[in-house]
Structure to design on (382 residues):
């Protein structure tokens, strides 16, 4: 589209400006202000302060129609120090756009420009700019503050760059596409005492070592072989001196699943193992288990439609399997039918994975992302 080619330089500059000024979840004040200003310039009505820093731009088509579609872009950065040394590198130490949300914002603003310039569709497009995707549940907060009550969406789509796919390739799948994310903290409490007299002190470190071994059998022995799951112990904290048996040890980690029944089974087995550890080592165990993001499950028809639309503008592939990483767009898909879509950005110049200090969004795929947003909106509101 010539129109997109004409606006790309501005959008790339905007993307790099946002990249240079990253903001963490629920603090995206500068980013949100820039987005609101860009939307107002093209005549789109803006509603701000939804979920603290979230905002929605509303564009009605010039033809009558009751249908509506939501297009979502996340805005927040990560608490990671950037190591790209690019001219537009983060100016905020310890914070940078290591997941490409700056590119997501630019692509959705590009789609807003194209659709506002020619609103030849029947119904309403809601451009949803969401805060705090990175582990803080910004989507859930926007929903709790009336997102879909105020801005009805019959369908909702989100586009995420994907370094593991060739640049410009579009991929999604019906059903699960991203995992549920749970985190756990297990506290084992003994009595503490002198390391030379272990018989007088229940050993929380020994109990933790045994528990960690047992936890790593859950996926292999308690999850059916046809179901996917990941359990990783990532933390263990306890003790402060070579000659003291500590009174308390903490074991923490994460679990990723795609099926709530598997999620339930894993938590139940963890609780049973902790009871066994209590009896075996004479310690007390406490489990804090947080199911902070559900699995991202695409509506089958919405995902099929997305692949058909994508095939008209780029290479489209059915994703063979879901990813174990998580995404809070899952909360939106629990409320409305829709699909989460991957846009490949992998090239020899952009090999870095997401959440890597060397990562940068690949600006060459921006046009494909804009075209996909526009095509999805026009398809649903035809």
């Amino acid at each position: 589209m010539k129109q997109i080619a004409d606006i790309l330089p501005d959008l790339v500059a905007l993307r790099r400006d946002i990249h240079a000024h990253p903001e963490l979840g629920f603090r995206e004040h500068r980013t949100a202000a820039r987005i609101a200003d860009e939307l107002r310039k093209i005549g789109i009505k803006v509603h701000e302060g939804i979920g603290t820093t979230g905002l929605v731009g509303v564009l009605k088509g010039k033809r009558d129609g009751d249908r509506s579609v939501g297009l979502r872009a996340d805005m927040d950065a990560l608490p990671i120090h950037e190591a790209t040394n690019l001219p537009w590198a983060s100016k905020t130490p310890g914070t940078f756009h290591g997941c490409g949300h700056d590119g997501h914002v630019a692509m959705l603003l590009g789609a807003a420009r194209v659709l506002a310039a020619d609103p030849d569709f029947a119904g309403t497009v809601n451009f949803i700019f969401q805060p705090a995707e990175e582990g803080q549940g910004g989507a859930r907060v926007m929903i709790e503050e009336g997102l879909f009550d105020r801005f009805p969406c019959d369908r909702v789509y989100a586009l995420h760059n994907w370094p593991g796919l060739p640049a410009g390739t579009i991929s999604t799948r019906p059903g699960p596409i991203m995992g549920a994310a749970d985190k756990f903290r297990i506290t084992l409490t003994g009595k503490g005492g002198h390391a030379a007299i272990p018989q007088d002190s229940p050993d929380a470190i020994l109990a933790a070592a045994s528990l960690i071994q047992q936890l790593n059998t859950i996926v292999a022995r308690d999850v059916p072989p046809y179901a996917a799951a990941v359990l990783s112990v990532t933390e263990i904290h306890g003790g402060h001196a070579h000659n003291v048996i500590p009174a308390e040890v903490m074991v923490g980690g994460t679990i990723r699943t795609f099926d709530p029944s598997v999620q339930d089974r894993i938590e139940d087995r963890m609780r049973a193992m902790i009871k066994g550890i209590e009896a075996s080592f004479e310690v007390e165990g406490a489990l804090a288990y947080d199911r902070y993001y559900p699995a991202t499950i695409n509506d089958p028809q919405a995902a099929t439609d997305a692949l058909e639309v994508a095939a008209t503008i780029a290479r489209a592939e059915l994703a063979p399997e879901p990813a174990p990483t998580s995404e809070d767009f899952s909360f939106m898909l629990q409320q409305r039918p829709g699909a989460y879509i991957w846009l490949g950005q992998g090239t020899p110049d952009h090999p870095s994975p997401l959440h890597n200090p060397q990562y940068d969004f690949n600006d060459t795929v921006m046009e494909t992302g804009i075209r996909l947003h526009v095509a999805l909106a026009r398809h649903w509101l035809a």
In short: The chain has two domains: 2-178+295-380, 180-293.
